Amino acid sequence: MLNKKSAEGQRQQQLRQMEEKIELMRSFSSSQSGDMSEYKKLALDISDSASRIVDELESEKF
To answer: How confident is the model at residue 9 (pLDDT cuts 50, 70, 90)?
Structure first.
C-alpha cells in the first residue's frame, strides 16, 4: 500500500513538472524570439514523461 501511495506521489510530481514545461512552451510560442531547439527539447521531455507515466500505470494494472 505504501508503495502505491509513493508511486502516486511521484506521478503527481511528474505531472506538475510537465505542467511547468508546458507553461514554458506557451511563453516560447507567445514570444516569437524563442529558440526552437529549446522548444523541441521541452516537447520531447514532456513526451518522455507522459510515456513513463502511462507505462507505470499499465504495469500496475497487472
So the answer is: confident
Q: Is residue 53 within 8 Å of 11, Cβ to Cβ? A: yes
Distance CA 29, CA 50 (A): 21
> All 3 cell numbers of residue 46?
514532456
Contact (CB, 8 A) for 54 and 36? no
pTM over 0.70, yes/no: no
Alpha carbons 12 and 6: distance in angstroms, whole number: 10
Place of cell 529549446: 38
